[in-house]
Request: fold
Amino acid sequence: MNPEAPDSRRAAAIEARLGEAERQLGRDPARAEALAAEVLALAPGHPAARLFQGIARRLAGRPAEAAAILGPLCEELSDAPLPALQLGLALRESGDDAGAVGAMRQAVERRPDYAEAWLALAHLLTATGDAEGAAEAYARYVPLALAGPRLAEARAALEANRDGEAEMLLRRHLEGHPRDVVALRLLASVAFRARRFEQAETLLRESLRLLPGYREAREALVAVLLRRAKPAEAVAELDRLLAESPGDATLIKRKAAALLRFLEYGEAADLFRQLLRQRPDDARLQASLGHCLRILGRTGESLAAYRRAVELAPASGEAWWDLANLKTWRASEEDIETLRARLADPALPEEDRLHFHFALGKALDDAGDYAAAFHHYAEGNRLRRPGAPWDPERFTAQVERWRALFTPEYVAARRGSGIAAADPVFIVGLPRSGSTLVEQILGSHPAVEATTELPHLPVLAEELAARHPGAPWPDLLANVDADALRQLGQAYLDRTRAWRKLGRPRFTDKLPNNFELVGLIHLALPAARIIDVRRDPMACGFSLFRHLFARGQHFSYSLEHIGRYYADYVRLMDHWDAVLPGRVYRLSYAALVEDTEAEVRRLLAACGLPFDPACLRFYENERAVATASSEQVRRPVFREGLDHWRHFAPWLRPLEAALAAAAVRFQPSTLL
Reply:
């Protein structure tokens, strides 16, 4: 018989009980404590058993008893970090914050790479008001958490774009560690990539509630807020970041960009000037200042800023396009030769090349060399198309889904839904249709505030879709109830309130693509006015083709796609007219130019507004205008734009053919 067998069996029994106790700590603390007691009966004073006993009592809600066990153990095991951390947690739960801080500092001194202890210390210091200490603890925790094994698998899945797997791993981790701010931020990035922006904001705000000094989470929150069309809140978060890093040029630029979205153009211009004092040779900053000044109507200063950008970066196609896109700019012969020389360089990057083509097209167009101008417009569009893919079949199918959903029966069943507020005036249609002029006319009325192309309605529609995963848009609206429609209407009014800076009873929303959402507007905001600005399809189509948009409007880089898009737009507007008779007022841009006063009177009447002669002097309105037509609406109505496309008629046959194939009709102003 082996005399060591009883000792071996005893050791095995102790190890088995300790292993089971550790497993039970997070599930059944009472069972874990009982197992630890069994070990202590076999081996009195066993350190691991005492540790598990203390942790079990803390988890069972008896922190004072836990501290009585963990305190002596922590002194005995003077190099062990876990007893010190658990003592700190027990003391905190007992109300002894000072003792808890001391114990947790012992834990991180004993093991400087102990991420869990740094996080616990950061939470405790935040709760006790030690912001500086919390920030230091957070700064130590975040890189350890990112590099540590707990989140490594989730991070690897994220980096490999396996977002579903990453989400599963992070949610599983957060079940056991709900206060892990890094895991919350990573899960927010999964939500952001899945376009669940509302959820991403909630996760990031929780992360920042737990750890206000978490810079990366606050920076991520700024991006989410901008995506949710909340630039005022984004500015507030950027101000918090700038309070910590006052000279951070990246943060200042982000704040300026957010202010532009919030219509605070003057303040944005001041920030760009501030940055230019530090970096006077930065061409992009010069161009950004030029954009602000153009919007503010300071054309001469804007031209000077764009010229300076070109001087600083003569090889930048974007800088030249910014200059060319200023409607008052006329290229000199030297400018034209410079543009041609740039395009002759075979090493010119493609992104610069497409900008140079658009800029030279504009210069030659102004000079009356229409054949050469069209060549460069066409080349610019050809180069732009791969980076702005457009599927006309998909858009046509989208239009058909709207038409199938919004039947007279569907509309009748939802009568009385939404918020009965008459504040919004939606100006819809296609870009380059004359909508900025209509906005300027309405914004000259004392009862109307002209804002800009507000992003809120599409963002709210996107958020609504995110709350109904798996259902295609817009089919999901078949199951949206009256409460959801009221909430959407109210959310739109709430989010746009900050853009209404003059306190007028009415305001405009000039996002052209809202023509797709006319049915949703009707359900959520049944008293809102909707103006469809319609321009001759050939004139509008060519104007789109010769313009390089900063973002969106991907259909505009092909004449055929423009024609098909215009046809789908007309077909959808015809459908709204059929199922929502009288809801949309259609205004012909040509009629507005030919008989301005009569059309303005009709427009105001359609909006329920009395005539005001200031609307005929719209060009005297000094409001900021953020679209490409900002210079044109600061002078009286002119006819040149009506027939300019005819100079290019020989090359516009693909547009004409697409329109003819769809039998597009064009009608004058009428109240349907």
Notes: The longest strand covers residues 424-429.
